[in-house]
Amino acid sequence: MAVKRRSMKTRQLQAGMKIDQAIVDASGRALIEKGTLLDDFQIQGLLSRGIMEIYIREGEEDPEEQAKKDASIVIPQAVQHTIDRVRVADRARVNLSESVKKRVSEGIQFLYSRTDDPNFAEATGNITGELMKALEENDAIAVDVGALKVSDEYTFKHSVDVATMAMVIAKKHGLSDEMVKEIGISGLLHDVGKSKIPNEVLNKPAKLTDEEFLLMKQHAAFGYQILKEKNSFNDRILLGVLQHHEKLNGKGYPMGVPENKIHLYARIIAVADIYDALVTERPYKPGFSKRDAVEMIMAMTGELDIHVMQSFLGSVILYPVDSIVTLSNGEKAKVVANNAQYPLRPTVVGIQSGQIYNLSEDIKCASILIM
After folding, report:
1. Which pTM value belongs to this model?
2. Of the residues 131, 165, 205, 369, which has the fewest C-beta atoms closer than 10 A?
3. Which band of pLDDT confidence, cut at 50, 70 and 90, is reported for residue 110?
């Protein structure tokens, strides 16, 4: 979805919308930065200040168009020397070849359309084996979900994205290869219960009614029952499917179990599931940027496992080395190194100034953001 700027009445704003202008006070101090995801408190603040209309931003820059713009930027020779000196290649990322994507895409569509097939468990193992091989071939310890894209159909793409990301998180978390593969199986099948949800509810392009939402919330239990009846999957895999929407504060579903009852597999899949759902564009909502999605995940400390969250942060690459970004001081910069624990704050080099900005460690850069 291309970037679109439009004016909106403040009273019509909803939390999560992105403001496309800065709100400043009488002295010029920024109260709300341009690009901020608005919350209810900020919306009420706008209304109380008599600001009745603002600009919001919808969608994200098309990656191909952005790549063309980046390629046209001329970097001075002296700056390029600085970039070459401090550049550190990214950690190995999961890479699926086109042939593997085709096999995985066909396999996941088979699983979700033929849940009663006698070869269901074998097919699941084969698909997970393909993903496991992709992790092992280049010792992948990071993931860029935007580069996976095995299918245009949301449910299939989402299932593979979640499985792949959950496996990378599990690997970062220090789990054994056997457990990483089990989490992959659980991630692939976490939404298989949606095969029991009527299509008019599953694919509804508008907000669900309360009754429809109650039905949708049963998909985890439906999936658990489908898999349990096969007698081919262990309890760890089953709990990953059943509990992937449970929350540590007990306010999840389908059962609302407390923190000590939620299995580790479900905790890992929950983070991968939420992140992928946030960044993926749907017919009824634009996708959030990867940066915004990570910030939203980080704010969910009362709902998600903090240790799993740390493994997640160490597994995603938001700004690949060599990509071009815009800083909040207005300067264009090139990413030269990522910090695994601070994916939002890589080290960059200003393209015109040649200045090195270590956004995660240099206190002088504390106020500088990537826009």
Report:
1. 0.77
2. 205
3. confident
